[in-house]
Write a structure and sequence with these properties.
With 219 residues, this protein is α/β, with parallel strands linked by helices. The chain contains six helices and nine strands; from the N terminus they run αββαβαβαββαβαββ. The protein has helices at residues 2-20, 48-57, 75-82, 94-106, 156-165, 184-193, and strands spanning 25-29, 32-36, 65-69, 86-91, 111-115, 129-132, 173-179, 196-206, 209-218. The strands form two sheets. A seven-stranded mixed β-sheet has the order 5-4-3-6-7-9-8, sandwiched between helices. A two-stranded antiparallel ribbon has the order 1-2. Helix 2 runs parallel beside helix 3 (75-82). The longest helix has 19 residues, at 2-20. The chain is globular, with a radius of gyration of 16 Å.
């Protein structure tokens, strides 16, 4: 029953966020405040961004290289930069990247902002820490905004992600947030096919949804 309810609610949530984000809105965490533009993943609609921010807040990041893959509004990258990390933030959404440049300036954070579909435009292949908040609903995205929610009918996002990740992982700390709202078994199977595993480091239930932060490790 829970799975059926989620299949109904999740598309409604995505559509509601699109309506809510017809104009830009502000999102804040501690002393960081950013503008979230239309078509950019809305951190105030779901709990995942807040959980990742709380998690990143606990990490020792001074002088470490840090990659946020699919940065959206970029508030996680800004937090990492303010903690002393050398930050690279990527996305495929030009609106998100331009907003992040302004948000970083407003928050006095130095960030390398780069348009990249997953790892394709990254010249460096080593980061001490990576953070990913991926799309995970199995549907083909119909527009730029839907890329933040949908991973393709056959989980194409994860197929490409794990295939490329092998060249960027060698004992570094790679963290991905997922929830029981997604097909965890399918995602873990794709990881395993690429000789990667998901090692649970944090589990937290908020309302009826359980969120997990995994460390991705090579087998």
């Amino acid at each position: 029953m829970k799975a059926i309810v989620k299949r109904i609610i999740s598309p409604i949530l995505q559509k509601a966020s699109a309506i809510y984000l017809r104009k830009r809105r502000r999102y804040s965490y501690n002393d960081i405040s950013v503008w979230v533009e239309p078509t950019v993943f809305p951190p105030f609609i779901t709990i995942s961004t807040k959980l990742l921010l709380d998690f990143v807040e606990t990490l020792e990041l001074k002088d470490k290289s840090f990659l946020e893959l699919g940065c959206g509004c970029g508030i996680i990258s800004i937090l990492a930069a303010k903690k002393g990390a050398l930050v690279t933030a990527t996305d495929i959404n030009e609106i998100a990247l331009e907003a992040l440049r302004k948000n970083a300036l407003d928050n006095q954070a130095i960030i390398t902002v780069l348009k990249s579909d997953l790892f394709e435009n990254l010249s460096e292949n080593w980061f001490d820490v990576m953070v990913i908040n991926p799309p995970y609903y199995p549907k083909k995205p119909a527009n730029m905004a839907e890329n933040a929610w949908f991973c393709g009918e056959n989980f194409e996002y994860f197929e490409r992600f794990f295939a490329q990740l092998r060249d960027f992982s060698n004992g570094n700390d790679i963290y991905m947030i997922l929830s029981d709202d997604c097909d965890l078994a399918k995602i873990k199977a794709i990881a395993l096919k690429n000789e990667m595993a998901l090692d649970l480091v944090l589990e937290k239930k908020v309302a009826t949804e359980v969120n997990f932060i995994f460390r991705l490790v090579s087998l």
